[in-house]
Amino acid sequence: MAGVPAAGVLLAVVAAAAGGFSAAQPWRWFVVPACLVGVVLAEKYPVKIGPEQKVNLGALPCLVAVLLLPPGVGPATAALSVFAGNRLVGRTWPESWLNSGNTLAAGAVAAMVGSIGDVQQDIDAAQALRATAASLLYIAINLGLAALPPALHGGLPYLLLLRHAASATWPALLTLGACGVSIAVLAVEAPVAAPLPLIVLPMIYRMNRAIEAQGKANEQLAGVLAAQRRFLTDVSHQVATPLATIMTNLSILRRASRGRPAEAAVADSVAEAERMKRMLGRLRSLAHADEDVPLRRELVDLAELTADVVRAYTAQAATSGVGLVAEVASHPHINADKDLLREAVANLVENAVRVSPPGAQVRLRVGRGLGGPVIAVADDGPGIESDRLPRLFERFQRSDSGSGLGLAIARRVVERHGGTIRVKTEPGTGSTFTIELPG
Description:
By secondary structure, the chain is α+β, with helices and mostly antiparallel strands. The chain has 3 domains: 3-194, Arp2/3 complex 21 kDa subunit ARPC3 (Orthogonal Bundle); 220-290, Orthogonal Bundle (Helix Hairpins); 297-436, Histidine kinase-like ATPase, C-terminal domain (Heat Shock Protein 90). The chain is 62% helix and 12% strand. A 5-stranded mixed sheet has the order 4-6-7-9-8. Strands 1-2 form a two-stranded antiparallel ribbon. The protein is elongated. It starts with a helix and ends with a strand.
């Protein structure tokens, strides 16, 4: 709190000694009140230039003052304007001193490098380049000093904070810097055109309003999706207990009605109850996959995982006359949520078995692709129509059979692991779904 303002004062004294206090043209002194008004307005009405950042437009009048006024006046004008603006919006005294000291230090260095507040009427290329360099220095020093207090008081790595701040604000800061240099150069070369760069301010205002509206819409959408996930989870849990009772009673009725006319009806009821149970399981899986909770990662052997899926679904496939085989080219390992990843592969296998004709085979291939481990599920079914492909992985995009959730779950699980899922298909020749995971 004391070091930054002290450094700013020292640098301002050096700049004043090097550059003096007199301006060649009287009109330049109007920059002083203009800077004060501009900074105060920017402090009172901050706007967003990025979705997650509020950038103070006060940097623009400060930079113009530093470039157009003498080195002994420009930095002090910018610093006093920042101090007045900070106090007006209710910032504490120490914070106001720190921010004004930051501005004074950055402005003094920039004034020593590229001030154009001298007698010269025409600005040559070298002076324009110096003004541009001064603008970049002003931005860099201001940003570097602003990241210092949170690093010292928060115990966080300074370079990490600086990198985050720079990555979030550099487009806006460079825009303001370029605008400031343009105004300063035009004020000397073509004063009538000097206000033209300010045309970006209404655009920034409109962008600010659009960002705020988008943020509110995103918050509302996130709330709706969270409520939807809670609804799916609650419904699946509430229905699971009575469904289990119904299935138990149906199993008793099926054993008691063997050889009787009601046997077929009971068997159909059992099949439908089993289908409902699978549907509820998939709804729970989808809700789990949508949650932002961390994945329960462990080292997973993909060959073992696919072998486990083959064992679990071999009997089910056999009832449809479909063979299920695993083709292992290598044993890749990956840090993944084993249960979720197994669910994704199992959904692909179940879909493949359902569409395959009797006597066909469903093949699970495990190996390595160009980008990492690969799991492919290939079938000899009828293939997928081209008009269904763009929406194939969307929820409830079902074909003649199935819930339309299996592929949506598979895609969501794979995406949460940083992977991709794609399909290769031709009508009449089957389909191959390929999961590629980062390795």
